[in-house]
Amino acid sequence: MSEKKIWTGIIAGSVVIAGSFAFMVHTEKGKIRETHAAVDSLRTEIDKSRTTIRTTPDLEREVIVLREIAERIKEVLPDTKDLNDLIRNFQDYSRETGVRPSSFKPKDTAKDRGRGKLASAFEKVAYTLTLEADLFQFLDFVNKIETHRRFMSINSFKLDATSRRKLESEGFASHKIQMEVETYKYVPKAGDTQEVKIEGYDRKRDLLAGEINRRRQAVSLASYTYRGPRGRRDPFIDPRVPSKVTDPNAWTVQRQMDEVDELVRRLDEATKYWDSSKKAASVLDRMVQRSELEKTLALLQEDLRRIEGEKKINYKPAEKRLTLNVVEPLAALRSELEASRAIAGPSREALEQVGAAMERHILAGEYDAALDSYKAIESGLGLIHLDPPREELAEWIRQLAFDAGTLRDFGKIKLTIYGYVIIGENPPVVMINGRTRSIGDPVGTELIVEAIRPSEVDFIYHGVVLTRHY
Amino acid sequence: MITINLLPDEFRKRAKTPARMVAAVAVAVIANGALFSWWCYLHFGVRANVDTTRSVLQLDMDGLKPQVTYHESLQKEITTRSARETALADITSNRILWTKVVDELVDVVHAGREGIEHYVWFDDINVKMEDAGANRRRSSFGTLKAGGHSGSTEYEQVANFLGDIADVGLSPLMKTFELPADPQGKRNEPDVDLIPSVNWSFPLDLELKSPDERNGVVKKAEKPAAKKEAAK
Q1: How far apart (Å, rounded) are the C-alpha atoms in residues A124 and A110?
Q2: What is the pLDDT at residue B114?
Q3: Which of B50, B126, B151 faces A39 most closely, judged by CB atoms?
């Protein structure tokens, strides 16, 4: 081989080998660079992950709290419409508050579906209710809706006040009301709520009890405690009074309405006693209920007689309400009661109550009221002659009725007394109705002069000695 | 001239590799050896080291991954669950408790002491709320309109009543409504059968404040006109 070829071989071989090694080095460096980059990326990722998982305990706490209050939130904003339940609630509230619904119908709310960021987060369900009620019944009804456990709101309502004429004929206010009640159904997003398993859940939940309670409170809806009319008038009732009333002590419209309301309440109470006595499981229980009923009725009738006698109720709506809701139901209750005790007669308590009421009336000079009380019980007195203790009370009541009648009739006899002469042992003389009378002289057909004293004369009237002052 | 070496092989001089060639081969060997050594250093030293580091970090990362996944699952559950809470907060913020508002209005009527300050009743009331969900910057958020009567010959009692509505010391109605419209009234035909026989009809127009104002989140900015007045 020639030297030239050898040189060529050496050089070529060296270059090839060197080139190969250079390529290997280059490749290796590239791989090292890539690995370095991967290492850096891993480091960044690890740092990021560490930072992320550092907040995991906070998230766990938040998830636990949210899970624990989820039921409450679901109650307020449920997944279902539950419209049947909603209508049942309206019915209950109507019954409790006394409003008189006339229609209910769902409202098309498709166009009102949640918009913007809350698109499809919830679906609105609305009902239009039409009803009649006075303002305070309506407010009670609205309050019950607004404090319902499910979120409900009233977005619009219209109230047309009842006319004065209608109020006078019915005796109570029937404002026409149309209202729109809205509630919402939550629309969960697809793939919602897959519960993550949290280690030591119960222990962690117990530690968060305070926070859970606080958040549960925060979820509770704002509410208002409605406390009724509180002596205020319904501002949708024309409060003007008839100009013909001349009595300066006449009750205001509000007072009249309040007094009638009070009588209605007491009659309701009496009706409850009556119902309880009918449903009583034992004789003793029935007697107790009857006794309470008798007491309530006696007082109620006494007050009713006084109010009617004094003609304090002259505001037409109040008067009508008194007739429809007190006088007529009371008479019906009385007759029902009388019918039920046709055999037994009035109870001892009833007799005592009536007797006491009559005594009070007689002392107050209200003889007619005393006789009215007697009339209420008179028919039953004949039924108790076989019961000596009650018969004794009946006798007392009859005597009181006799006294009341005598006093009333004596009071009605017109006597003009003026001038008297009392000198020593001589018989005294007095001028009555323009004529002189001595002791033993008759005055009219029923009176006999019994005694003459300065400023007063005693008469015998129906076997009773009565004194007339002059 | 041709030279012929006739000496037997054992006596002949050995043919020597030229020094230049040896030197060249040596240089080539050294250079290639250096390159090989460098490659070995990179491959078995640097790269192995970096690979080890990467393996350690990957192991670390693999250990963290389940925790990150757990974290993300929690995050997702929070997002899902709090969406209902957010929706609830949004719809409740716009609600008005009308029992409270009307009760407050009845209080104001009652505060007139049956004619000493004012003696008011209404024919109707119409309440309408606008849906605030769509646009919280709208001009009207709802209205309360009522047809009122003032039972007095003195028409200043209408102003007394509207003044009582606007009186924050007497009634909290102004937390819910803007100031009432300016007073106006019309005298009705007197009814001699009733006391008082004279009454004035007047409208009660109240505009609802925005939900944020009602909830006390923001206070309404002063109107430009008011600002100008203040500047003067």
Answers
A1: 8
A2: 75
A3: B50
